[in-house]
Amino acid sequence: MTTINSAKLATIDLNLLVAFDALFTERxxxxxxxxMGLTQSAMSHALRRLRVLFDDPLxxxxxxxxxxxxxxxxxxxxxxxxxxxxxRTVSDGARFEPERAERTFTLVASDYASxxxxxxxxxxxxxxxxxxxxxxRAGLQNWAVPLEEGRVDLVIxxxxxxxxxxxxxxxxxxxxxxxxxxxxxxxxxxxxxEQFVRLPHALISPRGISIGGYVDDELARLNLRRRVxxxxxxxLVAPHVVAGTDVILTVAERIALQLADKLGLRIVKPPxxxxxxxLNQYWHERQHHDPGHTWLREQIAQVCREA
Length: 307
What we know:
- By secondary structure, the chain is an alpha/beta fold.
- The protein contains twelve helices and twelve strands.
- The strands form three sheets. The chain has a five-stranded mixed beta sheet with strand order 4-3-5-12-6. A five-stranded mixed beta sheet has the order 9-8-10-7-11. Strands 1-2 form a two-stranded antiparallel ribbon.
- The model has no long low-confidence stretch (mean pLDDT about 90).
């Protein structure tokens, strides 16, 4: 049986092997060209290159087309095996079987995203993809750099900056509520605007900025200003501060619902219209068509829809 040695294989344009297989199957240059979507002259050129490569005429012209030489018949077995191996390799790479896959995905996630997303995502993966692991890095303001360099797979959060080479998908829409401790001496089931401005506030600010953002922008529109007495960087810390003090915290509703009963907090409607926000996931264009990456994005979107 004729084989193609590795040294010669390294010099072969894979398209030439595809052309050889088309010629061998069709036994006609024009039909082989049509099969590959080439012009007849392009296929004739490929045949000339094949003859030089294998030092054999390969196909002899006859009135109704071409006939393979003995050398071509011998080569056909090896060529088809090579093409089949390539197709199988490409097909395997295009499939992602979550129940069998073993892979670690690295995420950059904000504090809020981690609290809302990770518990249900981990439960979901444990059932559907036990070999998948998630490594989470804290939310970074310069998240675009590790994403572009391939050091992280996904960025999940509320970020203003954009990256031209990144895709963005909204995965969750959120709104704000206010929380106070259940036995707050002044705030009952309703919070007035006068109370909101007069009473002390806690503020969550990952960058440590004690003014600005959704709430303060809306107050400024009304020519009002609140009194922030404590600024913390994490969503998990602030509700604990509220539970032991008389401060008001304006926070994402899903966070409030998670912690209200556990910490003895009362959820009340803000006395002013505060615009909500959307949680997005970002990924680099190089991973847009990666089957495993696509699967993970779909799982995250599904988990958020159910959150």
